[in-house]
Design goal:
- The protein is α/β, with parallel strands linked by helices.
- It folds into two domains: 211 residues, 3-Layer(aba) Sandwich (Rossmann fold), CATH 3.40.50; 92 residues, Hypothetical Protein Yjia, Chain: A,domain 2 (2-Layer Sandwich), CATH 3.30.1220.
- Helices cover 32% and strands 26% of the residues.
- It has a seven-stranded parallel sheet, with helices on both faces. It has a five-stranded antiparallel sheet with strand order 8-12-9-10-11, covered by helices on one side.
- Helix 6 packs across helix 7.
């Protein structure tokens, strides 16, 4: 049996970036375009539920696979290997694989996945590591997170996102900072991760030798340890939430805890809304939007994920419960 040529191997694009940088926004941008490719999408969430999976807009040509309660670079890495092998065994002609990693993923062990098994190595090719950077919080993220540094250094393509929220002077400084960590990656300035697909898909940007210079041992990197103080907590409420009361609670909390609460994201059963209400925060920056209508056969409920350092589950749950609508 002939081995697949480079041109027939399925290209794999890995989307990385620290918590709240805009990875799911980029993924939705890619999937909403009329690219005509049959794509498998793999979404990884650090916590026990996958809010991102609920927010991915999937078309007819896309298949969504979710991994929860672990990170592709460590605890659920075996699941990734098994899933890709199953994708390669299928009869339908898959044209691309997109992987969105958790914001706490070290990219090196994820990359090594595609070099350790004959089936995966012969059936796929790493096309690019696309790292999304939060222009507002890049310096704080790099100071506080080894993973944020690794994601930037390992990138083939860097999207400096949220450029509309910083000054030109700050953007110049950010560009210099990025170039000190990674002088080789292609860099694009974006808002809402809007970019031409030709800049991030099928680019052949991944170069093994360049990656070995960044991390000479990454092909042997089978495990990765996270900061034990960083945890993911899921808060739940079955009764409708008063979003005004919620904002009155969460806003000062995030201002006070901005250095230790990296990211929050939730789908809310909000009083007075027939749609799901999506609330997200990155440190102290918050957004709230209406999403899809609640289906009649779905039991409504709120699920709110908080990711940070040394979190107090009981205090957080009490805070959310105090926001129940009366």
């Amino acid at each position: 049996m002939n081995k697949p040529s480079i041109s027939t191997k399925i290209p794999v694009t890995v989307i990385t970036g620290f918590l709240g940088s805009g990875k799911t926004t980029l993924l939705n941008h890619v999937l909403s375009q009329q690219h005509g490719r049959k794509v498998a999408v793999i979404v990884n969430e650090f916590g026990e539920i996958n809010i991102d999976g609920q927010l991915v807009v999937k078309g007819d040509n896309e298949e969504l696979i979710e991994f929860n309660n672990g990170c592709l670079c460590c605890t659920v890495r075996g699941d990734l290997v098994e899933t890709i092998n199953k994708l390669l065994e299928r009869d339908d002609a898959l044209e691309a694989i997109l992987i969105e990693t958790t914001g706490l993923a070290d990219p090196a062990p994820v990359a090594s996945t595609f070099f350790v098994g004959d089936g995966i190595r012969e059936g796929t090719r790493l096309d690019a590591f696309v790292t999304v950077v939060d222009a507002v919080n890049i310096e704080k993220n790099l100071e506080q997170s080894h993973e944020a540094q690794e994601q930037l250094a390992f990138a083939d393509i860097i999207l400096v996102n949220k450029s509309d929220l910083v000054s030109e002077e700050a953007m110049t400084h950010i560009g210099q900072l990025i170039r000190r960590l990674n002088p080789l990656a292609r860099m694009h300035i974006t808002t809402q991760c809007l970019i031409g697909l030709e800049e991030i898909l099928n680019t052949n940007a991944f170069q093994l030798q360049a990656k070995l210079q960044v991390d000479p041992t990454f092909l042997e990197d089978l495990t990765h340890e996270h900061d034990a103080a960083v945890t993911s907590i899921v808060l739940r409420e079955s009764k409708p939430v008063d979003m005004n009361r919620f904002m009155a609670w969460i806003t000062p909390f995030l201002v006070e805890q901005g250095d230790t609460v990296f990211r929050t994201k939730g789908v809310f059963n909000a009083k007075g809304f027939n749609q799901r209400v999506v609330f997200q925060s990155v440190r102290m920056l918050t957004t709230m939007t209406r999403f899809t209508d609640w289906e009649s056969d779905i039991k409504r409920g709120t699920e709110y994920v908080v990711i940070g350092r040394n979190l107090d589950r009981n205090a957080l749950q009490a805070g959310l419960s105090a926001c129940i609508a009366h």
